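Below is one such record:
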Amino acid sequence: MARVREFDTEAAVEAAMSAFRRKGFEGTSVQDLVDATKVGRGSLYAAFGSKEGLYRAAVDRYRERYADPLVEVLRSGAPARELLREVFVDLVDEIVRDGSRQACLIVSAASERIRYDAEVGRSVRGATGALEDALTDLIAEAQKQGQVGESKGARDLARFFVATMQGLRVMGAIEPDRRSLMASVEVALSSLD
C-alpha cells in the first residue's frame, strides 16, 4: 500500500522557491531545502525526485506567481505609456523594498541552470517569451493608435523592455538605489518616442 504524502507540496514548493531565490541553485543545499520546507530529505526526494525536480517546481511556481500576472497586466488594455511606466515603477519599488535582495528566479535560472536543464530552459523561455509577446502586442497597438513612435519595431522595443526589466533586477541586487534605477527606467521609456 502506497504511503499518503504527509506534507503540503504547495507549501514546500513556496518555501523552496524562497530558498532558491536567496541562495541560487548551487548555493542551496538539500539541507537548506529540508530546513526551509520543514520536510524530511526522503519525503522531498519521494515527492520531487531530486533537488533539480524541486527547483523546476519552484521555477514554475515563480512564473505563476510573478511572470504570468505581469503578462495579464500588460494585456489589460490600459494605455501603453502609462502602463509601462507603472510596471517599471512597481518593479523598481519592489527591488528597493526587498531588503534581502532576493533574486528573480527567472534571471538566476537563466544564468545558472538553463545550460544544464532543458525543462528549466523551456520554462524560462516560456516566461520571457510570453512577456515579450504581451509587450509586443501592447506597443504595436499603441503605435497603431499614434501613442508611441514607429521609428522602432514593436518586437524590438518589447525585447529591449524585457532586457531592461531583467537588467534592473540584476543591478538592483548589486545596489538597490531607487534614483539610479529610475534613471534607467526614464531612458528606457524615452525609447517609445
User: Anything to note?
Assistant: The CA atoms of residues 118 and 124 lie 10 Å apart. The chain is about 75% helix and 0% strand. Residues 59-190 form a domain with the Tetracycline Repressor; domain 2 fold (CATH 1.10.357.10).
